[in-house]
Amino acid sequence: MNVNKSLLPLVNPLSKDNPVIVQVLGICSALAVTAKLEPALVMTISVTAVLALANVIISLLRNTIPTSIRIIVQLVVVAALVVIVDQVLKAWNYEVSKALSVFIGLIITNCIIMGRLEAFAMTNRPWASFLDGIGNGLGYGIILVIIAFFRELLGSGTLFGCQVIPQWLYDHGYQNNGMMILPPMALITAACIIWVHRARNKDLQE
């Protein structure tokens, strides 16, 4: 599929250069917040917003930031954005904010965010950096949502907290797989996604 070159920063992270299943970054979030779909979706929105805005800000400042303190400046920008996101989330949905607990704060040290700031925003214009932030945030989020979908469905029989597996199945002996809501199953599910993705993309095979 031919894609306009200017849109590559947005499109590539969705599959070809996905930060989670290709670059193997952000795996900690997949283990921590994917037992349910709602926290995974909120984390996706939060990381995408922080990454896109941080990319733009760093891109605008890239020619004025001394090389010796660039990492400190990047951390300060990300930390400020995370505080804003955390406060908005607490005001908008306090229960989800409690469920995510410290993981919103840990966005500050998310290797995807720091990696994109250093590798892309520091050397590219604001619009391209914005697209790169959106693309990598959504690429990260797609994997989180897929993992959360299977973990919640098979582990709890629900999606977004609503029961989707019919009661008659339970009446006939069906039981939820309790292992699916344990952190190791997030890693195993992610491994399955990586396997399928690489099987379909021969150029990624070593």
Report on the architecture of this protein.
- By secondary structure, the chain is mainly α.
- It has one domain (19-201).
- 63% of the residues lie in helices and 2% in strands.
- A two-stranded antiparallel ribbon has the order 1-2.
> What's the number of helices?
9
Read across the widest sheet, the strand sequence of neighbours is 1-2
Proportion of helical residues = 55-70%
Structural class: mainly alpha
**What best-fitting shape do the alpha-carbon axes yield?**
globular
Mean pLDDT, rounded to whole units? 85
Reading the helices and strands in chain order gives HHHHHHHEEHH
What are the SSEs and their pairings?
Layout: H1 8-11, H2 27-32, H3 37-61, H4 70-92, H5 94-100, H6 111-121, H7 126-156, E1 158-159, E2 162-163, H8 167-171, H9 183-200
Antiparallel strand pairs: 1-2
Tag the structure with descriptive keywords.
206 residues, mainly alpha, two-stranded antiparallel ribbon, NADH:ubiquinone reductase (Na(+)-transporting) subunit D
Q: In a nutshell, what does this entry contain?
A:
By secondary structure, the protein is mainly alpha-helical. Helix content is 63%, strand content 2%. The protein has one domain.
